[in-house]
Each structure stands twice: as C-alpha cells, then as structure tokens.
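call fold(seq) -> tokens
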Amino acid sequence: MGAMINGYRFKHLESLISQAVNQGARLIHGGKRYHHPKYPRGHYFQPTVLVDVTTDMTIANEELFAPIALLMKVNSVDEAIRASNSTMYGLGGAVFGSKKEDVERVISEVETVGMAVNDFATFYVCQLPFGGTKGSGYGRFMGPEGLRALCNQKVALRIL
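ret:
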C-alpha cells in the first residue's frame, strides 16, 4: 500500500471508522494511520475493511479517498442498486457477477460514470474517459472527452 498525498484527513477517517463501529459495523482490519518505520515522514493509512456497514452511516455517505473498503449486506440486486445509489456521489463502481442480466441491470441503473465488470477500475488501464457524476463532480479526463476538456473551443457564425 503506497503513501497517501497527505495526512490531513487521518483524524477524520479514524473518527468515521470509530463512529461506524459504534453504530454496528465490524472492523475486520486496519482502521488507523500507519507509522512506517522506514519512512516516518510519509502519510500512510492502514488498508481497512469494515463489514456490516449500512447506508445510514456517515462513513457510507462520504468520498473517503483512502484505502477503506465498506461491505454492506444485501439480499437482492434491487437492494444492491438502491444501496449504491443511496449516496450523493457517483465517481466510479464495479460489479462482480456471473448472471448477465443482473450485471447489465447494475451497469445501467447504478448512478455512476464508470463501471468495471468483474474487475476494479479497469477504465484507468484502458485509458477510457473517467470522471464523476452527482456530488463527485463533472468533467472527464483520458480519452477524447478528456482531451476536449483541455481545449478552448470556438464557435463562429458567419453571415456572408
């Protein structure tokens, strides 16, 4: 696990994890900053796994940008889609499954820009356009859409 860009949010992340545990989530691994003995000035956060997370927990309603995996129990594809769409964010997602109809439903109904299938974040490797929707922002990078974002387009109306 590599270093994070800075450690400013570590206290907040630790607080969110503690709050989730107090609300019934179970911490399986990690949950706090890591003081690397070889790189003491680096900003490391332990890879973290929380299970039994629910959509009403604060941690499930923030973009964490940290090595934290939140696992939620659902009983159906409908419930999984509702849980995925329950947040105001929509940066990216992944769906794992073998039933094509269910996978296709998740791809079309989850409110996010990019969806990887049976993998995670493969659109980065393929250099496909990537960007957010909803509270995750707007715009794209990579691919033709990303190149257009770096251009100043001009419209000219000529009457001759």
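The longest strand covers residues 26-29.
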